[in-house]
Amino acid sequence: MSTMEDLPEKDLSIIKTYNLGLIGKFIDVKGVRKANGSTNINSDNNNSSPVNADHIPPINTFQKAQKMLDRPENKVLKEKLRKDHAGLYSMIDGKGNRGLCREVLTQHHKLALTTGNSRESNKVRTKLAEVLLSGDEVKLMKMSMIVANPEMSQSLRRDAGITRCNKGPDILSREATREYHRIGDHLLVNEYHKMGVINGRAAESLLQWHEVQLYSKNTAEYHELLDVLRPKRL
Q1: What is the pLDDT of residues 208-232, one digit of tens each?
Q2: Domain boundaries, the chain
């Protein structure tokens, strides 16, 4: 596995210039951009900017979860989630912006399966909302990191027979892309732990899983996401 020290100077320069992998609330990410003299302070789903703040889990997942909980038939589920998974429950609202985001290259943001209004992106965000409401924080984080990852998003598309996503030329090497996502994912898990969304045992388990299985196509989470994306046959 590559580390920052192993990367070419060009890759290191891009990662450092744009603070790739930075984790925080969107307002905090904007603050870092402003402090560094960026003119892209408000970039969020902005294809003209070199970077975007990728919300993990996505904003729309929290919005979908809120709509599901507002249904009268889910009154008991809502109370159970509030009581048994208070940290997770506190993230849910109509705006969907209580979660954390990661600074990523716009190219990588566009490749993530959670970005945009495609059929597959909507399916993935709905799946994440369902997992969220199940109260399984670890599964939610695993799936969220998989579909926020450009390499694994492309893998899922290929395996599901989806070909309409245009990758474009690579700005960073594969190793550099993996490295800044690795750093960001570790920070993401640690910050959600600090926020009380996941406990210490879950955080430790997630970091161990990430090191060994994030890029595996044989995990239960990968296969469950793939099942969501594959066309259903009658």
Answers
A1: 999 999 999 999 999 999 999 998 7
A2: 4-229
